[in-house]
Every structure is written in C-alpha cells, then in structure tokens.
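name: query_chain
kind: protein
chains: 1
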Amino acid sequence: MHISAEYLPEHPAFSASVREIESLGFRLSAAPVPGGKPYAVIGGRSNARWWLIPLADRRVAASAMALFQPILPSAKLAKVLGATAASAGLAGVLARKKVYISGECILGDIYGRNDLSYAFFTGTDSPHRKTAVQVMDRDGKIKGFAKVSLNPAVKPLLSHEAEMLNYLRTLDLKTALVPTVLFRGNVDGADVLVTDTLKTAGTKSASTLNGAHIAFLRELAEKTAVPGTDGTDWFVGELRTRFEAVAGRLPEDWQRRLEKAIEVVAGHGRDLGPRSLSHGDFTPWNTFFVDGRLYVFDWEYAQRSHPPGYDLIHFIFSRPERKRPADETIGQIRKTLRKLKRAGDDASADLLFLCYLCGHSLLYINRELETGATVHTWDGEQEAAVIVDALIDVSKFC
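structure:
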C-alpha cells in the first residue's frame, strides 16, 4: 500500500479498501506520482465510509456523484450541490483530502476498453463491507460496477449474487430490469463481481412504494412461487434451525424474544402463502427507474424461500424515517399488506411482519457473529426488539 496515514483516514475499513482497489491493478499514493490522477476523498457524516471522486475531468467527476445514493432530503441536496460543483470543475473544493491513483487495472480488459475512468466507494464499515467501483468512459457515461473484497465472508455473497442474476435472466421479467454479470472470479487474491448497468448520472430512485415496485414484486412472487408451501411449518423449521445455531451466543433477552416469537408463528395456525424468491434487501437505494421501468440491483442477499411480503415489508421498514413509535410502524405495515392483498386482516399482516423480523434479525445476527464470539447489537436491533415484543403479544393473534 502506498498511502501515508499522515494524510488519509486512519481507519481499518479505509485501509482494507485501499488494498482491494490495488488488487485490481491500481496504485494509490497520498502525493502526486507520474501518471497519477487526483481524487477527492470524501467521508460519510455518520458512518466510517469514503468516496473517491476523480478530479481530472469535470464530466467524469459529475458522473461519479452517482455513487452517492441519498434518501434523506438533506443528503439529496448535498448530492445536487456536489454534482453542480463537479460540473463546474470545483469538486476539489469539497475535499479536505486527496489521493492519487495510477496504474492499469483488469476492468479495462473485462469491458474491452482502454479509455475508462473510475470512481470508488469504500463501503460502509460492517462485517460484509466491500469496495464498489463505478466504471465510466471518458465522457462520464456509466458502463457498470465492480464489487471487490478481500474478506472471506463476502466471497459467498458475490458468488450467490452472480448466481441469482443469471437465474433472473431466465425468468424474462416484464416489470423490471436487472444487471448482467460480466465477470465473477478471483483477482490477485480478491473476490470480484463485475456487472453492466443502465444507471446514468440522472437516474432517480423513489423513496415511496409505487405501482412499478408492486408490479415487480407481484411478478417475482408469481414466477418463483414454490407449490405446496402455504402453511407455516416450512418456515418455522427454518427459523428454529437458524435460531438454534446461534442461541448460545445471543444476549438473554434476544434468546427469549426469538424463542417466543418462533413459537407464536408455529402456533398461529394461519397460512403464510407460498414461499418465493425475494430480493432480500429491497430498498429505495437498491432500485432506480429507466424510462419509467424499474431497475433492481444488489441481489447478494436474495433468498428463494421467503414468506410473502418480505420485500414489501423491508422496503417500508428500512426507510431512513423509520424511527417512529412501534404502533405506527405496525399500523403502516398492516395497511400496506391489506391494501396490496398480501394479508386479509390485521392478524395475518402481523404474522407476516413477525416472520420478517425474525428472519431479518437472524440474518444480521449471523453477519455480526462472523466477526466475534458473541453478538450484543446490530443495525436496527433496538427498534426490532420493541416491535417484536409488541407483535408477540398473544392477544394480537386471537
């Protein structure tokens, strides 16, 4: 690594991302070097994450701002201001730190071009952090993305995402578009997944559910439904297996909470509806629109056997303004599931919400356990605890 800690962030996530970027053939330096192109290093406000934005060409710099995926109004405004500054050739004023990147990388061979430009996102510090590379041509047109990781825990995710994307191509979806896999393999010790994209600097994401989202979720469920899985037994069995694998390493309150929640699901006696493929991380920032048609990416957490409504609930529950009283969140989930005919009544909606929270919590628990012997908290843990406790009130299911 050619980075001086005196000039750039002293954080393990940043250092790991530098190693991942260099595995592709790049070289990074804190000082100018022959052939090195200047990049602004822009840090996140609340999390350990950084964006490396190229400064040599204003069109490329403006296009690189597409790596930011803001949802909150303040963040959206910051992106607009950043893109405007980049277009005016002033992107450098946004950064207190710079890095210089030189060298030839393997991505040129994959895309079959020698005139490519790049922007980088270190990924948010987490057990599944990975570096994302936005690939552009000399005019700033976005050609695709690469995910790069030296973390052994991420390798199965990248392989799984490639498998899911190839499977989705066989479904001939009418309501959504997905990336095409261009490369999946190991490069200088790093696991790499490269895809194309239809994203542009001007593509928009919708922060609220609309008809395009619903049509896609309906088609995905219909085309991947597993016959004969309407009851709860199949899901209860999966939950118990996953819970028993981690129970001894959980805080006592979560051991009791999940054990009771699983028993509530098992004893409810209602059909869940047929299980089907879900995206697994269906959020506003993992979708955008192309000529009015939905484009869905980041399929690394996709699962073939989720209960109905999983993606729908996740879209609502993951929105940044989710910090609200539990009864409001439960009420919104009930209203949405009934309106979209995913649940016939409040009890059915509550059951699907509880199934989601159990599955989602166990996913995050397993992710945290990959880095240590026990787990104490995870993203969204406190809010999930309050809602699960509310939902396992037996009176709600009578």
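note: The two ends are 61 Å apart (CA to CA).
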